[in-house]
Amino acid sequence: MPSSDATIGSGLAAQAFPPTPDFSDASWIWTSTSGLTGVPPGASAFRLTVPSDTTFNTLGPSANISIAISADNAYNLYLNGKLIGSGLEYPQPNIWTINNVPTTQPWVFAILATNYAQALNSPSLNPAGVIASFVASSSSTQKAEFWSTGPAPNPQWKGANLAPNFYYSPTLDDSAWPAAVVLTPFGGGVWGRPVPVPASLCV
Fold first, then answer.
1. Minimal CA–CA distance to 145: which of 136, 157, 154?
2. Segments in the chain below pLDDT 50
3. Minimal CB count within 10 Å: which of 15, 110, 145, 162?
4. Which domains does the chain have, with CATH numbers?
5. How far apart are CA 65 and CA 83, in angstroms?
């Protein structure tokens, strides 16, 4: 995971504290390398567990988490089993903020990403992907953590092509889930460079 120093992070250093997440260091991910084309309609699940460790000690007992996210075509975003927000269509990314999240326990993020049938008469062109960027910050310590969907040093997401029951539960055993596949950096593929905008505030 990137350094807790709030000056670290491409595109974030010049922003006022707390930083706003963007996709500059993020990549589109899916459950297989076929995500860029010819993906059949259906829902896939993705999970990431961020452990509570000494890195979080710099943030204090709690942190505010802001998440920029988009999916082709729709998503549900969860933290520790709680639905944070939903979105439709990748050209309209959202930023969700969760306040006062304890740093003394792991954070389990889950995303259900749903791919629709290709609207055109060329199903072979049908892509699927999800992209997200995270900022965890503390106003009391003026520290922040940054990470995104994408290759190392970002943490590794896991993906299941068929979402099991309770895929969002923090107690689900996902040890057998395969690693999610990094498809293309932000700006690549068919998706362009959509700009995320604030969507909601979750307390």
1. 136
2. 1-14, 203
3. 162
4. 27-202 (2.60.120.260)
5. 14
